[in-house]
Specification:
Helix content: 25-40%
Strand order of the largest sheet: 16-15-14-17-21-19-22
Distance between the termini: 60 Å
Strand content: 5-15%
Largest sheet: 7 strands, mixed
Number of helices: 28
């Protein structure tokens, strides 16, 4: 008989690899083929399924209440008889997705499902209550307990510690536990209880331990890891099967988790008190002298019951094959799967003064770009190369997680053949419920031909702590509901949604979180295009634009997408494309001084992109409005390649790395002279009006607008909310305080020229553009010293600017309205206006 096996395989996870061994022993008179890992167009290969006599879906926590895991419940599996064996339900505070439950219910109630068994009573009860299979559901102990393990003697006595890269770890409590054992004469083995990419993740967790007497143990096979466990006298494990295997050998265990599967195992042996989360300060007290003994009769009973469960599985498989007549049950790919939580990385360097990341190392640059800095890059070649680098640079687990995001998101797994751009938007799930619908409405107002060739990728993210905060969790749910509302109201938009919880510890270790989130967002976009080219859906020689925008955008040029795509088509010698950014135009009416300050900032930025301007200042890329060729982005190794994940690591580093690779200079220095124009170009008519709340609060609190992001990384989750600083800001209407407005304009222009744009010719050009309307006399004076730049209005300039801001004369109160009309309303001879969020 030919058995197709489906589960969390083949990723080197200790327990799941033991499941494979268990099923191979059970069907040793047939052929067992692991189907997982042989995906075809986002799902399990139907041709491989057709070669099997029966499908066995078995292993750990495969029935996920909060998400539909397509890799386990692919409808193509229902074209053969199916036996569901020993599965678990990870009951957690993430709650229940009714959509996921409904889809799993359809699978479990299919006529080709012949048996369902679970590995504990609570999992059985959940399956019966929510999925209501058409066959009986029985519960047996975890099937791995049926295997025979042999315990070894050890000298000196040994404690084996097993940490898991997918879980939060309170290293302080763990180290206190080890200290008690070490003081009692125990040898400490820090065992990486996994192989493959799961082993890569667990190795990072093991590396976080700072107990000097712990011996790191790594092995390249499941058998060798079991051998290491068998030589322990006590096992303290975050991995469930580390505890199970130890206890089946009679070795007392300490469970470093309170998940219900741990509670069920320890409860079945009367040892509930020996399971505790690493955050529990009483964890060290679980080590006692002497440790408890496991009654051999209890262990034998569990083994016997597990073997009975296996016999029932085998009987159902044999019966199903004997009576198989064939049927069809294929369905569409839908929903998403949440991959493992992120692992920890290296320490960070501070953000303040950020001028881009380090220049890319040669191993992060593709061979074509290394050979010739101005090479014309082939999209498929560079994306294929980039994918091949990820297992080394980020680990096989990281690549598998990104692949899973792509494969389980229909809009990404099946990119249309005409795709020209992916708009990538990071969405703070707990903070964007009031903005995301309006932002999506802007794309619905774009030209239809551009909308039809663009996919919008939303990466909804939130810290794990949100799951314990009903108010914040409600915000996340409202954000998702607003996205769903936009999908209904704007059916032409192709919106892909990926959501993931992150560990705030990442921000503590790396100076922020936005760079880490953006790296995953960008890689999901890059690998969705790589997949489409590899599968023949996209032309491998036709580049796709990655456009980065924000979730709080309030205005967009009506032809924004068309302008960006057309610019990339016309300009073959540029890699990055940017338009103007307006920072909350609606605020200019009440705060006209703010409007002048942020406009001057933007004029400086745009001038750096003038191809024939002759300025030496390197253009910088802004996260709320930047487009980059995916071929080039892949060829420079994307972003997030050093230990810093804070502000600037998601956007400034894009231009910094591309400039460094293309022009041969360091992002930390000025651009070297070159006959080739810099690779960043300005796109006329591709403007974004970003919410100005964060920058306005900085301005009104008396600080320079360039300080807006200095404290961006300081929030509890690695970033501060937009409203931070509002309480300390002076919200008096500036039209009633023109003198204060003039002083703040002088202050901010001086700061911009002192700290951000020190090139004198560039600053003078920007000033001439800003104050061209003052013809009677010079509007300002400037003075530069070695370390400072001072801008001051002349009396004539103050009088002229007072009228401009609306303090006196016939234009009173008109400054903000004039700007609004000039951006959002068309007039003779003016380009297509911006559109506003609905």
């Amino acid at each position: 008989m030919h058995i197709g096996l489906v589960g969390y395989y083949p990723f080197g996870n200790y327990g799941d690899e033991l499941f494979v061994e268990t099923f191979r022993d059970l069907f040793n008179d047939g052929d067992v083929t692991v189907l997982s890992g042989h995906e075809h167009n986002g799902g399990i290969d139907p041709d491989l399924v057709a070669q099997q006599d029966c499908i066995v879906i078995g292993g750990g926590d495969l029935v996920i209440p909060h998400a539909y895991a397509e890799r386990y419940w692919d409808p193509v599996l229902l074209t053969r008889p199916v036996v569901i064996a020993g599965v678990g339900v990870p009951l957690s505070d993430r709650g229940l997705s009714h959509e996921a439950a409904a889809r799993m219910r359809t699978f479990f109630q299919h006529e080709n499902v012949r048996l369902v068994t679970t590995r504990d009573a609570k999992s059985r009860d959940w399956v019966v209550t929510h999925l209501r299979p058409s066959v009986p559901v029985r519960s047996y102990p975890d099937l791995v307990a049926s295997l025979d393990f042999e315990r070894r003697n050890s000298h000196p006595p040994t404690l084996g510690l097993v940490l898991r890269g997918q879980r939060h770890i309170d290293y302080g409590n763990v180290e206190a536990l080890l200290a008690r054992a070490y003081a009692g004469g125990f040898r400490i083995k820090n065992i990486v209880l996994a192989t493959g990419f799961t082993g890569d993740e667990d190795r990072y967790a093991a590396g976080g331990l700072r107990f000097p007497h712990a011996e790191l143990v790594e092995r390249d096979s499941i058998e060798a890891l079991t051998y290491e466990l068998s030589g322990c006298d006590i096992v303290a494990s975050q991995r469930f099967h580390g505890c199970l295997v130890a206890m089946m050998m009679g070795i007392p265990a300490i469970g470093l988790s309170t998940e219900h599967k741990f509670a069920a195992l320890f409860g079945s042996l009367g040892k509930e008190l020996f399971a505790a989360d690493t955050a529990d300060p009483s964890l060290p007290a679980r080590f006692i002298e002497p440790m408890y003994e496991l009654p051999s009769g209890n262990v034998a009973t569990i083994k016997q019951q597990a073997r009975l469960g296996l016999m029932e599985v085998r009987g159902a498989v044999v019966k199903a094959i004997a009576g198989w007549g064939g049927t069809s049950g294929m369905g569409p790919l839908q929903q998403r799967h949440r991959p493992p939580r992120p692992r920890r990385y290296r320490p960070y360097r501070p953000y303040r003064g950020y001028r881009g990341g380090r220049p890319p190392h040669r191993r992060e640059i593709s061979p074509r770009l290394q050979a010739f800095a101005q090479a014309k890059l082939d999209p498929a070649e560079e994306l294929t190369w980039y994918r091949g680098q990820l297992p080394t640079s980020k680990g096989r687990g990281y690549l598998a997680a990104i692949d899973q995001f792509v494969a389980s998101t229909p809009e990404l797994a099946e990119l249309p053949a005409g795709t020209r751009a992916i708009v990538a938007i990071p969405v703070a799930g707990a903070a964007e419920d009031k903005t995301i619908y309006g932002a999506l409405s802007l794309y619905a107002q774009q030209a239809s031909d551009a909308v039809d060739t663009t996919t919008i990728l939303l990466y909804v993210n939130y810290p794990h702590s949100v799951l314990d905060d009903p108010l914040a969790l409600g915000n996340v749910e409202r954000t998702m509901a607003e996205i769903d509302r936009a999908r209904i109201d704007f059916p032409r938009l192709r919106v892909a949604v990926v959501d993931e919880a992150f560990d705030p510890v990442l921000a503590e270790d790396h100076g922020g979180i936005i760079g880490w989130l953006a790296r995953r967002l960008y890689d999901i976009a890059l690998l969705s295009v790589e997949r489409a080219m590899r599968c023949g859906r996209l032309d491998p020689h036709r580049d796709v634009l990655l456009i980065r925008n924000d979730a709080d955008t309030v205005g967009l040029s009506r032809n924004y997408l068309s302008r960006m795509i057309d610019a990339a088509n016309r300009t073959s010698d540029a890699d990055v494309f940017q338009g103007a950014v307006r920072w909350g135009i609606a605020n200019f009416a009440a705060f006209p001084g703010y409007g002048v300050a942020v406009t001057f900032k933007e004029v400086l930025r745009l001038l750096t992109m003038r191809v024939r301007g002759g300025y030496e200042t390197t253009p910088q890329t802004s996260g709320c409005n930047v487009a980059v060729r995916m071929a080039t982005f892949a060829a420079v190794g994307a972003v997030g390649n050093d230990g810093y994940f804070g502000a600037g690591g998601d956007d400034l580093e894009i231009g910094a790395r591309i400039n460094a690779a293309r022009l041969g200079g360091s992002p930390e220095s000025e651009r070297p002279a070159s006959s080739r124009p810099h690779p960043i170009r300005y796109v006329t008519g591709a403007q974004v009006d970003a919410t100005g709340e964060r920058m306005l609060n900085t301005y009104l609190s008396g600080r320079n607008i360039i300080e807006t992001w200095d404290t961006y990384n300081n929030g509890a989750a690695g970033y501060t909310p937009r409203s931070a600083g509002a309480a300390e800001a002076n919200l008096v209407d500036e039209r009633d305080d023109i003198e204060g407005a003039l002083a703040r304009i002088e202050q901010n222009i001086s700061a911009l020229a002192t700290h951000w744009y020190r090139e004198e010719a560039l600053v003078e050009a920007a000033l001439r553009l800003m104050f061209a309307g003052c013809d009677a006399a010079p509007a300002y004076t400037t003075e530069r010293t070695e370390s400072t730049y001072t801008f001051t209005f002349t009396p004539e300039g103050r009088s002229w600017m007072t009228h401009r801001l609306g303090g006196e004369g016939p234009e009173t109160g008109e400054y903000g309205m004039r700007i609004l009309r000039s951006r959002y309303e068309s007039s003779p001879g003016r380009a297509a206006p911006m559109v506003r969020a609905m």
